[in-house]
């Protein structure tokens, strides 16, 4: 027997309401799921990007801004330079928060060459980054008299290279004399002198111990370096653990004390001639 059921408006309303109620929940869940997946994808993309940036800084190239004139005339205040972070191996000093991490060793360690310009954590204040030139290696004996360096019993040759200017931190420029110093092996680099009787022109003989370096600024009369111990505001003998990399190129440069009120002034403050120049 076939049984017929008469449809009424109330039954039709109930059926429509029932069908809508049953179907709307899965739709809402699907939309919520898609939103969550999109959020996870965005977060994942940003995490990957952050990882790539961090890996690049740690392993390939690390940018620095030169804040002082201690390496004039080689590096100027306002230079944006790039350092090769793994040039001398790896230590926790290479990490962004390495000053909070323990450790004194290096992996795949290589010593710098005399004349290399190195970036390092200041041993007295590891949160501060310094840049200096390597003059003495482990085992070297070194002293200074009247500004001239004697390395392993031989005075390093100097050659007069003309008059120059030293830029001070307040933007003023004072007269200076430029020289070229020749290191063992024939490597030559410029240096700056503003006086013939600088406060650090004479230091007693010191032997660089194992695992350390003797570093100096090219601006010999305005550099806190290995000629001063840490108690007196200097670097002292630099542990190789503190090395963060080797300065290799100036990517950009700007005179930080020049006026920039107009477009013309802002453009004039940029040292285009220093862009992409090698650090030597």
TrEMBL record:
<dbReference type="GO" id="GO:0016020">
    <property type="term" value="C:membrane"/>
</dbReference>
<dbReference type="InterPro" id="IPR019533">
    <property type="entry name" value="Peptidase_S26"/>
</dbReference>
<dbReference type="InterPro" id="IPR019757">
    <property type="entry name" value="Pept_S26A_signal_pept_1_Lys-AS"/>
</dbReference>
<dbReference type="InterPro" id="IPR036286">
    <property type="entry name" value="LexA/Signal_pep-like_sf"/>
</dbReference>
<protein>
    <recommendedName>
        <fullName>Signal peptidase I</fullName>
        <ecNumber>3.4.21.89</ecNumber>
    </recommendedName>
</protein>
<dbReference type="GO" id="GO:0009003">
    <property type="term" value="F:signal peptidase activity"/>
</dbReference>
<dbReference type="GO" id="GO:0006465">
    <property type="term" value="P:signal peptide processing"/>
</dbReference>
<comment type="similarity">
    <text>Belongs to the peptidase S26 family.</text>
</comment>
<dbReference type="InterPro" id="IPR019758">
    <property type="entry name" value="Pept_S26A_signal_pept_1_CS"/>
</dbReference>
<dbReference type="InterPro" id="IPR019756">
    <property type="entry name" value="Pept_S26A_signal_pept_1_Ser-AS"/>
</dbReference>
<dbReference type="GO" id="GO:0004252">
    <property type="term" value="F:serine-type endopeptidase activity"/>
</dbReference>
<keyword id="KW-1133">Transmembrane helix</keyword>
<keyword id="KW-0378">Hydrolase</keyword>
<keyword id="KW-0645">Protease</keyword>
<dbReference type="InterPro" id="IPR000223">
    <property type="entry name" value="Pept_S26A_signal_pept_1"/>
</dbReference>
<keyword id="KW-0812">Transmembrane</keyword>
<feature type="active site">
    <location>
        <position position="132"/>
    </location>
</feature>
<feature type="active site">
    <location>
        <position position="70"/>
    </location>
</feature>
<feature type="domain" description="Peptidase S26">
    <location>
        <begin position="42"/>
        <end position="250"/>
    </location>
</feature>
<keyword id="KW-0472">Membrane</keyword>
<dbReference type="Pfam" id="PF10502">
    <property type="entry name" value="Peptidase_S26"/>
</dbReference>
<feature type="transmembrane region" description="Helical">
    <location>
        <begin position="43"/>
        <end position="66"/>
    </location>
</feature>
